[in-house]
Amino acid sequence: xxxxxxxxxxxxxxxxxxxxxxxxxxxxxxxxxxxxxxxxxxxxxxxxxxxxxxxxxxxxxxxxxxxxxxxxxxxxxxxxxxxxxxxxxxxxxxxxxxxxxxxxxxxxxxxxxxxxxxxxxxxxxxxxxxxxxxxxxxxxxxxxxxxxxxxxxxxxxxxxxxxxxxxxxxxxxxxxxxxxxxxxxxxxxxxxxxxxxxxxxxxxxxxxxxxxxxxxxxxxxxxxxxxxxxxxxxxxxxxxxxxxxxxxxxxxxxxxxxxxxxxxxxxxxxxxxxxxxxx
Amino acid sequence: xxxxxxxxxxxxxxxxxxxxxxxxxxxxxxxxxxxxxxxxxxxxxxxxxxxxxxxxxxxxxxxxxxxxxxxxxxxxxxxxxxxxxxxxxxxxxxxxxxxxxxxxxxxxxxxxxxxxxxxxxxxxxxxxxxxxxxxxxxxxxxxxxxxxxxxxxxxxxxxxxxxxxxxxxxxxxxxxxxxxxxxxxxxxxxxxxxxxxxxxxxxxxxxxxxxxxxxxxxxxxxxxxxxxxxxxxxxxxxxxxxxxxxxxxxxxxxxxxxxxxxxxxxxxxxxxxxxxxxxxxxxxxxxxxxxxxxxxxxxxxxxxxxxxxx
Lengths: 279, 310
Fold this sequence. Notes:
The complex is a heterodimer.
Chain A: H1 13-16, H2 23-27, H3 35-50, H4 53-71, H5 88-117, H6 120-124, H7 132-161, H8 169-193, H9 197-215, H10 226-233, H11 236-248, H12 255-275
Helix pairs in contact in A: 3-7, 4-5, 4-7, 5-7, 5-8, 5-9, 5-11, 8-11, 8-12, 9-11, 10-11, 11-12
Chain B: E1 7-16, E2 19-29, E3 34-38, H1 45-52, E4 60-65, H2 74-80, E5 81-84, H3 96-104, H4 113-119, H5 135-147, E6 153-157, H6 165-180, E7 184-189, H7 192-198, E8 201-206, E9 209-214, H8 216-224, E10 227-233, H9 240-243, E11 248-254, E12 257-262, H10 266-276, E13 281-288, H11 291-306
Parallel strand pairs in B: 3-7, 3-8, 5-6, 6-7
Antiparallel strand pairs in B: 1-2, 1-4, 8-9, 10-12, 10-13, 11-12
């Protein structure tokens, strides 16, 4: 007999229905063929190709920006205010930040909320495959798009515009992985909080511009007044830009921005896990 | 082993906050049966099947689906029960063939896609995007997905709503074909005609209660037992003259008209009794209730007795 007498708030129904002990079973049910996950990823890839907003804003726009910035002569002149550095290498990580933020804050939550609104997740709840596999498929596809984007941006910057080969590629990779984790976790929380696709886009866009400001898009971090720079250090994209700039210039990035990114990833992953609704 | 009923529900109750969607529902579906859940919108039909599918947990009562508890055994349940639910869609930019291939991969022993699309008349549509399908084609695809895991039990919620009459009849033929292959079917509908045509037994649900549970023929018999006679009497008479007749259920007046409802040989009894009292019935109209009327009567009476849950 499955008896529950406590009334439950409707918004948390799908959440509260699953006892904690069932959590691992829910994510990896023994009845669902593992090959199904491959099919899910394949179909998410098809959808990403057929509805190419993520590819356009996550890959094409950053590439165009790199080309424009690379063509501006002023970008390659040493700036006394940056201690003799040129602006171009400062902007490459900022453009990568932008790509990750578009995918994490806008594409990912918009897709998940529309899947929830259309009942696609609900439909999956009646099959042996849990709807969380589609969420995982979305994470895989958007991560692939992000990695493609930043690979293209970095390779074009090096080959066409004379960017130095990153001196500490391991540190750069770590910075990138943590940046993706942090921004995608925030995106999942947006999907959990938003009641509609429009709300998800509004929240995503509302966060995107201020966070990009703190990454230094309109005023490089080195030129920010002390207070702004202090704030920037603790924003996800500020920390991300700082970690990437440092590792491209050969230093292992200081622990602080990496810890900030890891902190965002953990806190928002927890929030998303707690509040995400499947229908 | 046939020790379990396909679906067994006992005293199911489910409320959303203060709104009681299902108050007390019990029924049992035998293996190989087409069992209908019939009721008006908001009666609790969908909540009931959502509990059967393990999508919602009951507040009270028990559900067993071939002996499995949907709350505890969701994984095993979803292998043997295929569902077509309302408010569930598919990605608009996936092709029919891709969707079938995707859902096929969810099951260890799936049906043959070719056979399924032939049976559902979707064979020519495999390259079409989901968004380009008509309402009827989407419904048929949805039914195909409910059957693709070769389930023992199929739950079909309002499978023909939004379909034109021809598409509806085609879908009925299809469901009969599925049952003939040994699949138990739990059919949610608010179309009397659909229940009449397909179901072996029907549970009439209203305001979260089972109001009647019978074969469609049994329900029809209850309905056709209800007749009403409407006439203008030639002279005044006391209502009790008619209301004491065993055939008469009620006597009401509307202006100069008298309306007598009842069962059996109502018309003869009324006219003979009036004639014996020296009253002639003019402008006689006789209405025999349809199944639809029986449904309204059954649920209507229930609403008045129990009140509508707040």
